[in-house]
Amino acid sequence: MKYSFKNDYAEGAHPRVLEALARTNLFQQNGYGLDDYSLKAQQLIKLQMESENSAVHFVSGGTQANLIAISAFLKPHESVVAADTGHIFTNESGAIEATGHKVHGIYSEDGKLKPEDIQKVIDAHQNIPHQVKQKLVYISNSTEIGTHYLKNELKDLYTFCRDKNLFLFMDGARLGNALMTNNNDLSLKDIANYTDAFYLGGTKNGALIGEAIIINNIALQDEFGYHLKQKGALLAKGRLLGIQFQELFRDGLYYELAAHANQQAMKLKSAFRDAGCEMLSETFTNQIFPILTQEQINALSDNFDFYIWKKLDDGCAAIRILTSWATPDEMVDKFIAEIKNLK
Amino acid sequence: MKYSFKNDYAEGAHPRVLEALARTNLFQQNGYGLDDYSLKAQQLIKLQMESENSAVHFVSGGTQANLIAISAFLKPHESVVAADTGHIFTNESGAIEATGHKVHGIYSEDGKLKPEDIQKVIDAHQNIPHQVKQKLVYISNSTEIGTHYLKNELKDLYTFCRDKNLFLFMDGARLGNALMTNNNDLSLKDIANYTDAFYLGGTKNGALIGEAIIINNIALQDEFGYHLKQKGALLAKGRLLGIQFQELFRDGLYYELAAHANQQAMKLKSAFRDAGCEMLSETFTNQIFPILTQEQINALSDNFDFYIWKKLDDGCAAIRILTSWATPDEMVDKFIAEIKNLK
Amino acid sequence: MKYSFKNDYAEGAHPRVLEALARTNLFQQNGYGLDDYSLKAQQLIKLQMESENSAVHFVSGGTQANLIAISAFLKPHESVVAADTGHIFTNESGAIEATGHKVHGIYSEDGKLKPEDIQKVIDAHQNIPHQVKQKLVYISNSTEIGTHYLKNELKDLYTFCRDKNLFLFMDGARLGNALMTNNNDLSLKDIANYTDAFYLGGTKNGALIGEAIIINNIALQDEFGYHLKQKGALLAKGRLLGIQFQELFRDGLYYELAAHANQQAMKLKSAFRDAGCEMLSETFTNQIFPILTQEQINALSDNFDFYIWKKLDDGCAAIRILTSWATPDEMVDKFIAEIKNLK
Amino acid sequence: MKYSFKNDYAEGAHPRVLEALARTNLFQQNGYGLDDYSLKAQQLIKLQMESENSAVHFVSGGTQANLIAISAFLKPHESVVAADTGHIFTNESGAIEATGHKVHGIYSEDGKLKPEDIQKVIDAHQNIPHQVKQKLVYISNSTEIGTHYLKNELKDLYTFCRDKNLFLFMDGARLGNALMTNNNDLSLKDIANYTDAFYLGGTKNGALIGEAIIINNIALQDEFGYHLKQKGALLAKGRLLGIQFQELFRDGLYYELAAHANQQAMKLKSAFRDAGCEMLSETFTNQIFPILTQEQINALSDNFDFYIWKKLDDGCAAIRILTSWATPDEMVDKFIAEIKNLK
């Protein structure tokens, strides 16, 4: 069978996560997020954010995190501004609209939003009350195309949002990868300071399942549990989520795993560059988009799986390569060997 | 006070409509759309469409017609394709999304949709079930920028929609104006044949209030009354809507009024052309968009009201002029006199 | 044809309302509720409530008023408490639930809610966040079974609601009738003081169409226009609603019409009593529920229409008789003559 | 620390489930439910139901299963009939209403629904289209109060539902317990035959997390994946659910675990009976409701945790005792010893 670089959720959990589950398995715990492990994991995350007043809730997936947070924060007449590559705009089957809210998709070359993009949407919606009111800005970090935000970019966005009375929400399905790039200058503390809320992805970084919704804006924390329950996200065995996040954040495992994934991707990027390949976009996280000829794609496809991301006009195409905490050196080396053989 | 060309709903109803209301005022009638006038008006409209199996329902406004029809026709995971100038995409405060459905807005130069535009949206949503499913195409006739569909355009769209298992819905807030252009080749019968459903606008063409939702696709007719009631559209005194549509469709008044509005607009268009002004777009309905210098705009603004529609790069701007069934010759003549004086 | 006592919306509008429409018909006005008549009508209503800080919005029907107000006021996890005879609980086709909110229906002998009824619902929902949170109390005045609230009852409810952090909302589809009973001690001012919001019914008291939503709680007034638009209630020709309410509230016509309706009902109630009939419930508004034998029902049915309201165990049944502003003395006298002939 | 009989989700997963997770952990698999384990588990369940044409989908929790299935099956104007003890009516924070649908709660002594209960709701909603349309019947097996359905009861309900054009949906959070009572005569095959859809609970019977939604009615199967995705239930690592259900259904573990839970409860029931205690209701599943004096409750509370279920008029109260797959003989014996000491 071919080795897959198609996504970062092809394996189960990091072995330490499974061990923690086994170790605690038979201790009786309270249900619905009131177990000792969830409480401990919340404390660990708040400590690492240096943000004691943030609220932390664990849910089972990213679409769920997005739809619950956004629908809890907004009134019926309020809308969301996102990049048109944003997961909620294009890859969640209308989940946000299903809760009643419009999502404006803005074209973005690099998958990131800038204040001027958002301002244009606001300017085009000044016929009150005939046009929907923009109230929440949704960004992804790292983005769906592998790019990530620098500190000044996030700060500018947050300042803009505060000025315009908008909430800033970050989808952190791959936040670990964003934080562990070589050129990253953002910390968890910065993210606690410069967003109203975000979620911290576990599924794609070592957990079996689980995302941590973190609400920094105190005005948005109230009665959030009702929303979790109403949308079907409050697990009877919340311990499953708590113990995993406890293990990931106990001693830095979360960061190590993301760093590993990034390094594997960067090794592959170098190999592609050395072989003379251009990248569709410049990324430093666990996603790379090398541009190959059809012949090169065919050659690499013999032993490896990956997605064709975008066909280009000259018959070439960008492929998408994803690495993860589980990507072994052995497979990276084997892939590099094949890349070296490309003409 | 200035005379207003800002919209086509500045006056009340055509006098004959008021007379009909007064004449029938004290006859006791059944409530909730089961009055004699509504039943008669339904028959008149079906006769003129030559479509006995269509279903006709009267509601009080266009946003209401759109949101009830669309939410009744779709399942939760289905979305709507519209032009980005479409009323539901930009001017109904998120009404469709509030019923749970995504609206895809497609850029359109002339406000009309073509099959290839819709196909592009479908092509970009093939990652099932992660991406929402397109199920209904929304068009406006005449469009929000004054253009209108020709018969072959509508037929092509409908054929495409049938092939792709999409519903075709037409917003006819200004359908009378579309049907009464000089170059129109569409009849009500064609619209019954080439749409799954549409609404026929009364508010902007002689009624005090009222739109007729017409469902041609029999599969979509079932239990529609529940949706009217649930969304607050089933008027206790449905007679108010029935009597107006009866009067408008009894002897052609509806068409006369739309023709009048169009003629007044065409007279003004000629005057602007004679004065050397270009139009932003070529329209034959009751909306025109002459391009003027700021000086010219100032001159015309002394005695007349209208909207600045779009600022252009050279300091000029397109204004929007709307005429209606109520626009008197006297005001058109007075405006033309001022247009002639433009330099 | 039989004369109908089935409902209070069988005729059109009071002639003065039609005259006002005709008189103002061709004056150009702003659209969407910004016409002179709506502004004037808002002022008149606020003056009569002695509540300058209330906000007044006109919509076309009662279900629409209920669903817009309630969905605008509540967050997704909040529910409504109503009597199980309440219009929203049983006769609006799930309109409130369609906006996402549960309605708790409480059994009530007389159609009115008491604080202890509401407390029981709250007590049964203390498993937070697994159970929905009660946030709004819905009452009707007059109720769906013709009873009405006295001042101390309303004040007690409002005090209770404030204590429990609940909103109090009154459905006033027949508020005129409640205010014009002989034993009423409530004024519009009291209702402004003792509710967070209510609506004042026009459709059933002289208007062609129209209800006035009145928001007394300032915290609930913000951005209400968006909700009107999003739910399809913002009429292009808002003048239609404004002019009617202006006429009804200009010189007391609204109260006169309701008083007339009540008097006609009370005359019929006396006649039934004189004929030896019991009433199902004691009402002083425009609804009465005399209990008749099947023979008596058959006799009255020859010339008059009314609903069988409730079959009783002994073969008798309560019928429902509704009168309105339009019920003429002639018909009341004729009906009384037949009642006198009952055995 | 006290040993808890408060619920059946206090521990993690059955050890064999954890072992299966560990064993398969690093095999690369497709995401979103297309992994080998999910496909295998679907086959196993369909085989055991003898219902090859059923569709099986795995989700993470019971509220999620209920809200997705019900909202996927219903049109906007359709409602649900449930017992007033039903989980969706009282313990899911308005989850069904949040998807737009009314739930009618019917009083039921034993937590079960009978055809005549449902008929009464239908009879009371014949004012079409002013009243919501009943379309789905929701039952729980075992019920929220520990009772369970016999085969003829389920068959009668299903026959009734077919006659009335209603869907029958069973909440099987504790279906294993229902199937393993001593007097049960229902098989999985019967449930496939006599419901339109149901869910099979894993969380409370040996899994870490997970419920299997099973759709028997072919007309309801179409495009169900969209609903899973839109409501946030489609896990990237669907393998987590698949491997668990594979292990539970591979060789009967699911049934063994439920039988164990029931046996432990029955031992405790006998002990309470021997001690002279009455039961609030007669149950044969893993829930029992012995009636105790306050003194007895205090005595048992020293070493054991349980809920006070219902206070009775005479100062006594029914407590709720829940057992699970994890309840050890040692704790049951210890508890029985204390029960024997009750006076």
What does it look like?
Four copies of one chain form a homotetramer. Chain A folds into two domains: 3-9 and 254-340, Aspartate Aminotransferase, domain 1 (Alpha-Beta Complex); 15-252, Type I PLP-dependent aspartate aminotransferase-like (Major domain) (Aspartate Aminotransferase, domain 2), CATH 3.40.640.10. Chain A has 14 helices and 13 strands. Chain A has 343 residues and is an alpha/beta fold. In chain A, α1 packs across α11. In chain A, strands 2-8-7-6-5-3-4 form a seven-stranded mixed β-sheet, with helices on both faces. In chain A, strands 9, 10, 12 and 13 form a four-stranded antiparallel β-sheet that branches. Chain A has a two-stranded parallel sheet with strand order 1-11. Helix content of chain A is 41%, strand content 17%. The first copy, chain A, is globular. The longest helix of chain A has 22 residues, at 253-274. The first copy, chain A, has helices spanning 15-24, 36-49, 62-73, 87-90, 95-98, 115-123, 151-163, 175-179, 188-194, 224-230, 239-250, 253-274, 294-301, 329-340, and strands at residues 3-4, 55-59, 78-83, 103-106, 133-140, 167-172, 197-201, 211-215, 287-288, 291-292, 304-305, 307-311, 317-322. Chains in contact: A-B, A-C, A-D, B-C, B-D, C-D. At the A-D interface, β1, α1, α3 and α10 of A face β1, α1, α3 and α10 of D. Chains A, B, C, D: Residues 31-289 form the Aromatic amino acid beta-eliminating lyase/threonine aldolase domain. Chains A, B, C, D: It holds the Pfam family Beta_elim_lyase. Chains A, B, C, D: Belongs to the threonine aldolase family. Chains A, B, C, D: GO terms for molecular function: transaminase activity. Chains A, B, C, D: This is Aminotransferase class I/II-fold pyridoxal phosphate-dependent enzyme.
